[in-house]
Each structure stands twice: as structure tokens, then as C-alpha cells.
Task: structure prediction
Amino acid sequence: MIEVMEELVKGAVSEVFGTMLSIKTKPDKSLTLISNGDPHIASSVGFIGDVTGVVFIYSTDSFARLITSRMLGLRTSEAIGEELVNDSMGELGNMVVGHIKSRLCDRGMPCVLTIPSIVRGSQFSIEAAASATRMVIGFRCDAAEQVAIEVLIKPTDGPQP
Amino acid sequence: MGRKILTVDDSKTIRMIVAKAFKTFDCEVLEGSNGVEGLAVATREKPDVIVLDFTMPIMDGYEMLAKLKSDPDLKSIPVIMLTAEAGREQVLKIAKLGVRDYLIKPFKEEVIIERVSRVIDLKPRGEAVAKIRNFDDEIQLLIVDDKPAIIDQVRNGLADTKWKVDGANAPGQAMDFCGHTLPDVILASLTLPDNGGYSLFQTLRGGVKTKSLPIFGLTVKTDTDQQSKAQQSGFTGVITKPIEFEDLKTKICRTLNLDTSLRYFLQKDGALVMTLPADFSQGVANEVAMYLANKITLAVDAGIDKMVMDLSQLKKADITLIKLGLSTIQMCHELSIKYSMIGSEAVCQECKNYEETKDWRLVMSYQEAMSQLGVKLQVAA
Result:
């Protein structure tokens, strides 16, 4: 399952970042979660059904602002409120996980999405239940920026690929 | 009247993206953050199309759509569903709901414009406001020519206007430019490699945002084949090289319905001043004559009873000038407006030779003209 999810995450990130932000992404296994003390933001969307889990998109606060300005066609010098950044990052998560969900449905694993939620802070980490399968993929974004995607999958009795 | 597009999405980001996409069109984008708000706005505003999200709190897209379809007043409003979930099952479910179309997130701005334009006729906002724009407003021109000298020439030739001239050396670059800035007018060379000018024209005519954009072909005066080919292809017009800039300005003004009266008329020192330019021609005379009655009426309405005709920039007096002068004088007589005329030496001299103009009392300066009208101007220290 984890291999399937890795492939779906890579496809979804490439599609969403390319279409909505005109940002080229490249998976980079050497990149991990951000833990340098800088303010960062995590957007999460869950999926529940034959496959159940949650996807987190981590980025620095400054890159999240750039993402928001790109999505909305705003100048980077314009003041962008935290609420708008949260909403844009939530929508970005919704699109990424929506893309993954559609491919899971097509593979006979129907599921529904949860509404997006946002976590902000300088030092935080997400702890998962011991039984959950965890995967982290880092992406270089136009060379200068990076995001990390963390996927937690709960084992279920549903169909497996 | 502009069209109304209702976007119903719990994400402010998506509502802003939709609003941004239609910013350049003559339409109003209304918003609702869930099905309940969406229904309320739809009932009140009767939008021409609804762009509806599926997953929303309070009332989701399915329920809102069902309620729309059961309301006799709202059921005919076309709905385009917007969803991040594109599985086959989901698409089939959407199709059964009676929506006009559906759009999968992520989506490009051009795609949502294209889908909405299949449902309603979108007109660029410029068409609606062009009539109230003035010659002195900033007009955006895009010159598409592989010769940088031509782009520079146009830029220099229009330097006396507030118009902004940008250049593109190939059709691809022009399309990129139109993607982020919609020009008011395009001048495209008809001699670009591989018929680039014509293919650019076709591509722009096929785009929702650019289908009504005025596009002039640019070619040398002697190349009559290209000129007739451009006319047959549907170009707005042809500008010939060497470019006559007054002719170019006139063509652009007419195409964009620009109010050019400020070039010739202004109210100053309690008088209406009509200034004829050095390049006075039959075209200019027609333009001035077109505004004349209205300008004089507006001046009288504003309590002005004096007029100055400034002919000092002209190098000769011909029949066109004489006709315009006589009709202006007649209007002044009819409305009891005092008038005076300023002329260049050549015009003063020539006017003495014509029966119709021998009595014109031309003076040599604005101060003298105002003095003739009984207005003493303070001389700057």
C-alpha cells in the first residue's frame, strides 16, 4: 500500500503545484520534515473509507505566503493575512488529497475526505498511533523552496491494491 | 448589462481565484461560502451561472443543487460543479445531478473561463467602458514585430501620448504577454516568419479573453497583397509602414471609441478654448466638428460666454479650416458667445486673401485674444 501511496503523492503534488502555482516539484528523499525552529505550517486532510489515513503538507511560513500569493495572483509585497494563508494551504491540501482520493476510488478503494485543518508553530511534530504506517516525502519546489508530505495510513480490513 | 456569476465554495481562496479569473470580463462575481448562503444569493440575484463546490459545511453542493432544481424560479440556472474529487464514480454521480458541466481541481484560470463561456456569453470589460475613456487615458498597445526598430519607432511616435507601448518579437511572446496583461490594441506584423502574424490573429480570435481585441496588421505601404489578405482575414485594420502616427492615433481612437475632445477643447480662464493641431487635416476637422456643438453647449451650460479659437499651430489656411472656422463662428453667433481667434503669421496672411475670411480679426497671442474678449490676464512675475 505504501508504494501505491508514494506514487499517488508524487503525482498529486506535481499536478497541483504545477497547475495552481506554476511550480515544478522534484521528489528528494534527503529532505525531511522542517525542524529548524523557523515558523512553519502544516495543512492536513484526512481520507476515510476502504483506506483511512491523513496527509500533512509541511512548509515554512514564508513559503506558505508565497504559495498563497501565487494561487491568488497577488504581489508578494502585498500584506497577506494569516487567515488567508491558512485557507490557501487548506485548499492546497484539499486538492492534493482530492487527487489521491480520486485515484484510490478508481482502484476500487472508495473513501471520503475530511475538511482541511491547519497547524502552525515553530517546534511541533505529529505523533501517530503505533499501528499506523508512516511515510514522508520531501519535494524541492523550483529549486529554492521545499515542502514535505507526511502520510499516515491506518490499517483496515478493506481491499488492498 | 454585465453577467452575474455566483461562486459557492467554503474556501475563500477558491472564491478569490474565481473572482480573479473573471476580473477582466463585464460581469459581477457573487459569493457564497456554503449551500445556504449560495441559495440565498441565487434567489436574490438570479445569477446567469453558478460555480458550485461539492464538499462544504452547513449545506453541501449536492443538497444545494437539489434545492435549486426543485425551485421553479432557479432550476434553469446552469450549474458548473467544481470538485477536487475526480474519481469515475464521482463523475457519474455529478452527471446524474443535471449539472451543465464539471471542473476538477486543480484547474487553470483559462479552463474555468472557457467552461463558463460555454454557458454564458462573456464580454471583455473593456468593451463596456471604452466609450467613457479619454485620449489622455493610459492605453496599452502591444506591438508584435521581429524588428526591434519598429517597436522603438512606435514607442517614439506615440511618446506625446500617455499610451503604453510594449513589444513582442514573436507570436509566442505576444501570447505570454496577453496571458498576464490584456492590451487594448495589438499591432501585429504581417510578415513574421511562418505566417506568424496570421496564426497569432487566429489564436487570439479563438480565446475567450482576446476574441474581441482590436488587432491591426502592420505591413509596408506597397505590399497591397498583404493588406488585402489581412482585410479578408478579419483584422481590425491595416497600418502601413512608414507609419503615419496621426493616422495611427486616429484609427486607435476610433476603434476604442476614445473621447478625443480633450485634444482640441478645454475650459480655461472663463473661456472655451479650441486648439487646432499643427497636423490639421480633414480627419481632424471632422473630429472637431463632431464635438463642437456639444462642447459649446456644455460651456454655455456652465456659464461660459467666451470662446478662443487657437489656430497658431497651423502653417496654412485652407478650405477645410475656413469651413470649420465659419461653422464655429456661426454657432457662437447663435448662442451669443463672444469669440476671438489666434493665428500664426502664415494663417493671418492667407486669411486676408479669401472673401470669407478677410474680416477675421486674428491676433498673435492668447493674452491678446483674451484681452479682445475683455479679460485681462495677470502676467506672471
Q: What stands out?
A: Chain A has a mean pLDDT of 86. The CA atoms of residues 40 and 60 of chain A lie 4 Å apart. Strands of chain A lie at 25-27, 40-49, 52-60, 111-113, 117-121, 133-141, 145-154. The interface with chain B takes residues 15-16, 19-20, 68, 71-73, 84, 87-88, 90-91, 94-95, 97-99, 101-106, 110, 113, 115 of chain A (CB under 8 Å).
